[in-house]
Design a protein that fits this description.
Rossmann fold; Glutamyl-tRNA Synthetase, domain 3; 3-stranded parallel sheet; Glutamyl-tRNA Synthetase, domain 2; alpha/beta; 4-stranded antiparallel sheet; 12% strand; binds glutamic acid; 5 domains
Amino acid sequence: MTVRVRIAPSPTGNLHIGTARTALFNWLYARRHGGKFILRIEDTDRERSRDEYTQNILSGLAWLGIDFDEGPFYQTQRLEHYKEAVRALLDRGLAYFCYASAEELEQMRAEQKAKKQAPRYDNRHRNLTSEQQAAYVAEGRRPVVRFKIEEPREVTWHDMVRGEVTWNTRDLGGDMVIARTDDQGQVSLPLYNFAVVIDDIEMDITHVIRGEDHIANTAKQILLYEAMGASMPEFAHLPLILNKDGAKISKRDGATSVDEFRAMGYIPEAFNNYMVLLGWSKPDAQDIFTMQDAAPLFGFDRVNKAGARFDWDKLNWLNSQYLHDMPVEDLCDRLIPFWQQAGFNREVDFAAERGWLLELVTLIAPSLTRLTDAVEMTRFLFESELKFTDAAIAALQPEAVKPVITALLGQLKDTPVLTADAANSLIQTVTKLQNVKKGMVMKPLRCALTGDVRGPELIPSFLLLHQRGLAIPRLQQALSIT
Ligand code: GLU
């Protein structure tokens, strides 16, 4: 048997971390077993589906490097398949038209609520005569198609994550709607639970791997597989991603869409690594690994049943590890878009000035947690106009500062080539000449050059600024504010 798995996102929002994690687990399972990973866009909800969300899902998966082998298939291009399957169920008496109006359903629910019962459809139109049906049609009612759910009955499956799962059909809300009809009373749009089963059958899906929030759907879908006489796939329900309080992760927790994480400066390798850890652990308990490392080892025996708590500190730590270990050329390429976005390309030609950029990247790499950290950290090197923090201005005020900076300027003008050694001896000379402690030279120098009391290592920053022709003007400028 060839393993065939899929993800089936609905394009009703941007690629969510939950969907991305599900995609990754499917991908790992497919790669582990030499199988196929299929992408299907479930776009039958015409009101909420948007093309821009489909594009966002595709670009998000591409950014993560989660490649699929077949698809994307679009459900709206497969409507005839669903219609035909609905008609077959109607013909076999396994489904029927229900004419209950929205008001009737509303009233039914209100009565159930008053009796403290769970909301359900009471199957009232299951056995209408053709005269009753004709009368509803004459009233102009537009029916839906419902699939008969036999009650009570236990539906049991062996879940690859949760072990044996059993649902009683009494808890499925009554006969389920599987399709809507059009103005002519003809079967038109299928609903999720139905379309998904038809697709999974026709696409020969062998393992349905998805979030735990779909467990109740699985019970319904199993009934549909049975009605269609199709062989049942295996099911695996992944633990939900929770916030630190144990609730399902939401926008309020900082970020939920892959896009947002990308904009925050996380890199795909680290983000994938973190997503795999949201539910799975490597047999050797190592935390840092690529998805290529994980694939040969991946299995559901090591997937947790309990919800996975999202931990920003861990994600940040992983991201920093990847950034610190990355080749400098690669890191530079990844930083450039963030620098460009900050507008630094107005003063720097990123293609032509690669030399000092690589030196800069080497300098800041050990301090980076996210790519975005590099923006404020390096602003003083890109923008010729320097912004001073209050602390830096205060540090430039003592009387002893002016002669120190004047001496630094004098020495610098006499230094033909500024190397690290030359910079160090220049500082030493000024320390001696002014008869001050080294800190009394270093601090004003840092404030004058960078506008801040802290930042990247001073000597390499000094060299880079000097290379860019900015060191002398900055020292001169500092004299005017001391
Ligand atoms: N369209 C469903 C969703 O986005 C797919 C669930 C499934 O994998 O069956 O949640």
